[in-house]
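RECORD TYPE: protein structure
NAME: Phosphate transport system substrate-binding protein
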Amino acid sequence: MRQRPVRLATILVTCAALTAAGAVSALAVPDLNAKELTIWAVAPQQTVTKQTDEQDKYNQAHGRPTPTPELLQPTLDSSLAAYKPLGKNKLSGTYNCGASDVLAALSKDWVKEFTQLYPKVKINLDPPYAGSLGALALIDGKLDCVFVSRELKPSDDVAFRAKFGYGPTSIPISGGSYRHFGFLDSMGFVVNAANPVNRLSFDQLDRLLSTTHNRGGTPIRTWGDLGLTGEWKDKPIHIYGIQPWNGFEEFVRERVLDYNGNRGEWRAAGTDPQVSWDTTVFKQAEHVGKDPYGIAYTGMAYVDQPVKVLSLSNHDNDPAYAPTYENVASAQYPLSRLVYLNLNKAPGRAMDPVMKELIKFVISKQGQRVVGNQGVFLPLRGFQSAASAQQLRSLP
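PREDICTED:
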């Protein structure tokens, strides 16, 4: 039997036990009514390394091996809408779709259940399994849809628009994982364990990280600019990030720096002594662990040092949420991630009925039960599914 979502009382009891064992260094007592954890100090995860060429080759051919699920699993949101089949003979046709290597197994499970409802529909999900290759094949007209475990690359979007004169349709169909390496883990901002700061807003981070300041306000350059006093007041903030383009970098850019339809631009490494960009995500926590004045963004699967993971909010006065399992699973944590189904839908033309029903099924209670049964990715919450359904209805 799967267990219900982690509740805050459970978290506090568990963390108290872990603290006694030396696994958790600090945990502030939260306001239980607000479901807000201000400080979240976690035991470092096992260090992970880049996939080898042999592993990448295997993953493209077979899909990436599914990791061990989290011990605790969320129940389905009761507000998810049930899918109502049209009838076994209402849909037919053969379709070719692609998937990221981490979505090969889940996508096949979705397709299996969908085609049981519509036996005259055949959806091929063949290798190579790679989101980047699938996006290119979609542009070339070789695929009808692509299951991708991240936002599309800006270059893919540009190439698609250049060819068709409109953008690709990308609809969220699942949550990401909590902290599984390679499986679209949630992201966080980390600082040195000695740093007094506990929470930040996206408004503050935009003032710190960008040159565009789409959210307004004056630039932030020192820890004093973030309200720290004493010896911290005049200390410069050292930023550790990931060189564009990267899925982690693009996700943070879209959530934090992009605002009101305006794309945000990063401060430039090389010309700015406070900014250092790596080519990969693997060393971000290590940088901050060694630098008391550093801040970095990283995936939760890569927090392999005893650093402080900050609580985050969208705006300065909004409630801030720590990246606990419950906050990520309930999508209250603002850097929880999403899985997308991408397809070519021309404005003014009706969507292919099979693709439309496939999306409706996947984001429904039945489709999200498939996600929960796998136990790695997190099912959509009701409000997320409703937003995807509204996006589907509003397509021109």
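COMMENT: The chain has twelve helices and twelve strands.
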